[in-house]
Amino acid sequence: MTSYRVQGLLAIGSSALALAACGTPDLNTDLRPDGDPEVLTVMVQTDQLSAFGGVPEERATFCKTGDDKVPTVVGLPDFSIAQVCPDDHSMGVDEVADADPLAWLARVEFDELLDPSIETLVNMDGGPCGPTDDGCVGHISAANPFTLTCAGAPVAYDGYYVPNGNNVSWPVGPNLTLIPSDYTVIPTGSECSLMINDNVVDKDGNSVPADQRGPYKFKVQVLQIAGCPDPGTDASGCTITPGDGETAVATDATIDITFNAAIDAASAGASAITLHDDTANTDIAFTASAAGPDLTLTPDAALPAGDSFTLTIHSADQFCDLAGGCMTPGADIVIGFST
Length: 339
What we know:
Layout: E1 5-6, E2 39-49, E3 56-63, E4 73-75, E5 81-83, E6 106-110, E7 120-123, E8 136-139, E9 146-150, E10 153-154, E11 157-162, E12 175-180, E13 191-196, E14 216-219, E15 240-241, E16 255-258, E17 273-277, E18 282-283, E19 286-291, E20 294-299, E21 308-313, E22 333-338
Parallel strand pairs: 1-8
Antiparallel strand pairs: 2-3, 2-6, 4-5, 6-12, 7-8, 9-10, 9-13, 11-12, 13-14, 15-16, 16-20, 17-18, 17-21, 19-20, 21-22
């Protein structure tokens, strides 16, 4: 049988390759097949990159204490290492507070293999996965193994089951990986809560212990301009074009700002952003439009040639994402450029 499970880059790590076989394999790992399936760690993808910059950083928002099966240091696909849980198994971890607003996922690692029926495998045509299919995709939405809420509202999700791995592999496993179906309905800065439902069982039919079903909590990163320091008095690194100090900007140029979440263009009115012609001492009118995280300011008329301009993003006004999460007021972000 040549079928394989297609689960995305992060599911195919340096130590674990998720393979679909005719039956879920009992891999040679240090798992605990006896007893109830224990939750070892819950990991969340953040908006940071790993040490070598190749892999989005996942951090534990929960680590089971007093259990030597809990993962500690693991190697990542970019050959850097990550400290998942403390070496001291008596210590827990702080709640993740910077889940990536555009790309977070959550992994729940167990100490033994689960009943594989928690996942539905379909082929590339959307039909049942069979022994002659070259590739199959895993889905967990139909089984509904989790209850996910963010900002108190239910969130739809899908994901997959990774049957291989252990506490030293990447990704750690076995795990159920949850991926929101639509990030734009989750407000930035909101707290999310993950509960394990009672249909998550091991291969012997044992359920996850009631006291290990959650809630497991974490927060989505607050809305901010991508790359900006916090607070943002220094515009270096901010994804704004033209950049601070740029000269010879075209008179018909637009101003492009990238946020870390899908932005609501209606919140980017003239009171929130001002474009000032310093040479003529007058404000420049513009129209704001957005496509996902990218906000574009288009001046209503060509900018005068040879003039100097100041773009100010005011801290007193709040930009908001499509789900209603708004920037936390801080210092103004100011950049200057000239045509």
